Amino acid sequence: MSATFLYVYLPYAALLACAVGVTRRLQTAGARARKAEPRPWAPGTLALVVGAGIVALNHVAGWVLPGAMRAFHSSPPRLFAFEAVSLIGGMLLTWGLVQVLVRRMREGQASWGLRTVYALLLLQCVCGLVMAVGVRWGALWSLDVVTPYLRSLLFLKPDATLILQAPAVLRLHLLLGFALLAVAPFIQARRASEPVAATTPEEPLLASRKQETATRAES
After folding, report:
1. CB distance 166 to 143 below 8 Å
2. pLDDT score at 203
3. Domain map of the chain by residue range?
4. Average pLDDT over all residues of the chain
5. Could you count the other beta carbons within 10 Å of the beta carbon of residue 66?
6. Which member of 44, 76, 118, 120 has the lowest number of beta carbons within 10 Å of its beta carbon?
7. Distant-in-sequence, close-in-space partners of 192: CB < 8 Å, separation ≥ 6
8. Rounded CA gap, 130 and 109, in Å?
């Protein structure tokens, strides 16, 4: 499979898969919706939300307003502050993902599909942190590499020339993003379709040692 195929056709395949997954989820949302008890946010959840907000805002700003961001980054102190805030957001997001995944696994709420999504997200975050630390000033050079590529996809004129010359960690970062775009709606739809646990526990197939002891004592 050539690299050109991955960066020219895979994004559209991922977008199509995402659209199918979102449509499927919307069609089944009404029948499968259930009311959950509100719970206070744990520190991991709060870190995940704050970190995701910072990272998303920094990414979207470069994609939507490249001219304004290029002018903003023309000042070294502002560029350094932007990079520092992005790094902090990435670390918060990574830590929050680990905390939420561990909590879900302890509560028995993490299916293998959900674990796969979290693993992809964690790898995506690690790639971002590696770029922030090892490939400096990504907020500036990405305006001339990533933004033109994404816009070429948007206008149905994909041009991966600059991306193929970019660092390997950036190329992996993009591929992971496309993979998450494709699979995330299906994982969420499957999780929503899982049956709600009965309020009255069913009798286990095999009695526990404690139950056997209690039965013998009664007899």
Report:
1. no
2. 45
3. 3-28+41-194
4. 80
5. 17
6. 76
7. 25, 28, 29, 32, 33
8. 30
CATH level 3 topology of 3-28+41-194: Fumarate Reductase Cytochrome B subunit (1.20.950)
Closest CA to 187 of 128, 106, 120: 120
Task: Name the amino acid, one letter, at 19.
Answer: A
Q: What is the DSSP string of the chain?
A: --HHHHHHTHHHHHHHHHHHHHHHHHHHHHHH--PPPP-PPPHHHHHHHHHHHHHHHHHHHHHH-HHHHHHHTTSHHHHHHHHHHHHHHHHHHHHHHHHHHHHHHHTT---HHHHHHHHHHHHHHHHHHHHHHHSTTHHHHHHHHHHHHHHHHHTT----HHHHTS-HHHHHHHHHHHHHHHHHHHHHHHHHTSPPPPSSPPPPSS--HHHHHHHHHH-
When pLDDT is cut at 50, 70 and 90, the band that residue 213 belongs to is low
User: Around Cβ 163, how many Cβ atoms within 10 Å?
Assistant: 22
Q: How far apart are CA 50 and CA 199, in angstroms?
A: 35
Q: Judge if pTM exceeds 0.85.
A: no
Taking residue 135's Cβ as centre, other Cβ atoms within 10 Å add up to 14
pLDDT digits 0-9 by tens, 58-101? 999 988 899 999 999 999 999 999 999 999 999 999 999 988 88
